[in-house]
Amino acid sequence: MSEVNFSLKGQVALVTGGSRGIGAGIVKTLAKAGATVLINYKSNEEAAQKVLNEIKSISPKSELVKFDICNGDEVDSAVDALIKKFESIPILVCNAGISRDALVVRASDEHFREILETNLLGTMHMVRALTRPMMKNRYGRIVCIGSIIGETGNKGQAAYAASKAGLSGFAKSVALELASRGITCNLVSPGFIETEMTQSLDETVQKTYFERIPAARFGSADEVAACVQFLASKEAGYITGATLDINGGLLMR
Ligand SMILES: NC(=O)c1ccc[n+]([C@@H]2O[C@H](COP(=O)([O-])OP(=O)(O)OC[C@H]3O[C@@H](n4cnc5c(N)ncnc54)[C@H](OP(=O)(O)O)[C@@H]3O)[C@@H](O)[C@H]2O)c1
């Protein structure tokens, strides 16, 4: 009987938006699980370098990769170069995302475009670029980070909700296309998670949120990262097209 430990020893993982927040938590968890982690970021080099420094002693081959996931050509050439260097990248975590608030009545084209291009098109670019090498190896683990808002909607977050709902359909379609090649594609869908964004909310607002969350607290990036590690592991090979909710009971289905 094989041992169950969700180890990622000897594997290479590419994590988009690994420089801050949930992405930084995912990078550290995957590195602790034994993976070499390629930490993508867009512009915040200082934050990305800090994350790399933290994992360097346990994951010496890990490195930073700067590119904008919105730009398909940039993604393709960065992934090509990484495949040449690392031979295979069996784990892809599409975490990079942005959130901007605007009521639909006041939202500009630019607002809609910016959110959809990052959260949805950016993820599509990443998955497309890694699909062929994963198919060649007949193995892959793709994990996309969705959001509870994609299911429930939220005032002022219509574009964000649409992008995350879109990811859900995208992940299921990718799962169907690639299941017979040993490649899984799943969505981790967080509720409220402690990041710079939620930490800056004042105490009364936080308390209002807590009253709605059965667990009466925000989740942590480490807890989201544990879900990602599980779905990225060999042991999760029979789970595909699934959504793993992590929201303290705020949404049950
Ligand atoms: N925080 C929550 O409560 C929560 C809840 C549900 C879902 N989520 C989802 O979880 C994911 C991470 O959220 P977070 O709160 O951790 O975000 P965050 O702290 O704002 O970090 C966003 C990360 O994405 C990167 N990024 C943004 N645009 C990019 C682009 N075009 N190309 C490459 N990288 C890009 C940023 O890189 P730079 O550092 O270079 O800017 C940064 O590393 C997002 O998909 C978000 O929608 C978050």
Care to describe what's here?
The chain has a single domain (12-246), classed as Rossmann fold (3-Layer(aba) Sandwich), CATH 3.40.50.720. It is globular and about 50 Å long. The chain has helices at residues 21-32, 45-55, 72-86, 109-137, 149-152, 158-178, 196-199, 203-212, 221-232, and strands spanning 12-15, 36-41, 63-66, 91-94, 140-145, 183-190, 243-246. Helix 3 (72-86) packs parallel to helix 4 (109-137) and helix 4 runs parallel beside helix 6. The chain has a 7-stranded parallel sheet, with helices on both faces. The chain has 253 residues and is α/β, with parallel strands linked by helices.
CATH topology: Rossmann fold
At the first level of CATH, the class is Alpha Beta
* Beta-strand proportion: 5-15%
Shape, please? globular
**How many H/I helical runs?**
9
What is the assigned CATH homologous superfamily? NAD(P)-binding Rossmann-like Domain
Helix content: 40-55%
As a whole number of angstroms, the C-alpha radius of gyration is: 18 Å
Separation, N- and C-terminal Cα atoms: 33 Å
How many extended strands?
A: 7
Provide the residue-averaged pLDDT.
96
Number of domains: 1
- Tell me about the largest β-sheet: 7 strands, parallel
Order of helices and strands: EHEHEHEHEHHEHHHE
Main sheet: strand order: 3-2-1-4-5-6-7
